[in-house]
Amino acid sequence: MRSRHDTSHDFEAYVAGAGARLLHTATLLTAEPPTANPRARRLLTLALAHTYADWDRLNGGDPYDHTRHHLATRFANTAWHHPGARLRSRARQEAPLARLTPQERLILVLRLYEGIAEEQTAALLGMPAERVRTVFNRAMAVVLRPPPRPAPAAGGVKAVTS
Q1: Terminus of the chain with fewer CB atoms < 10 Å: N or C?
Q2: What spatial distance separates the first Cα and last Cα of the chain, rounded to whole Å?
Q3: Could you give the 3-state DSSP secondary structure of residue 90?
């Protein structure tokens, strides 16, 4: 049986190695700026706490996958499973990911940034692969489309802004 000190040391080494990437993933999910990301940090802290609690039971399993799973499911549960959850991030709307719904953002981050296959993403989120594909394609269309710009003034008349 491993001592608590060994477990703590192993976990600290894991966080030192994977923490920055996991924080970036959480920041992409919340669509916050990398320099001001309190929601992402809280999300990651909760996922890491869950991983630490399960550390001895991982039995050679990949702690990164375990943490990413809790990061994704916690984000999904708080962002789009609760009635009345905000559909769009309060982050700057000109940021490409901020224009996505939380579900679109989650699927896009898992598929593109984390490189998880469509079927694995569907299993992780408990949805059909066809739905994951549809949401992914819609998210890509939004991200690749430039944000809407104000219409130009017609005939030299300045547009009225309020």
Answers
A1: C
A2: 67
A3: coil
Structure tokens at 104: 């679109």
What type of residue is 105?
A: R
d(CA 82, CA 21): 27
- CA separation for the pair 15, 64 (Å, rounded): 9
Q: How do residues 31-43 score in pLDDT, each as one tens digit? A: 999 999 999 999 9
Query: Which residues of the chain are under the pLDDT cut of 70?
Result: 1-5, 80-94, 151, 153-162
Using a 10 angstrom Cβ sphere, with 0-12 exposed, 13-18 middle and 19 or more buried, the burial of residue 6 is exposed
Q: Is residue 64 a contact partner of residue 24, using CB atoms and an 8 Å limit?
A: no
In single-letter form, the type of residue at position 68 comes to R
Burial of residue 26 (number of CB atoms within 10 Å: 0-12, 13-18, 19+): buried
User: Residues 79, 87: contact at Cβ < 8 Å?
Assistant: no
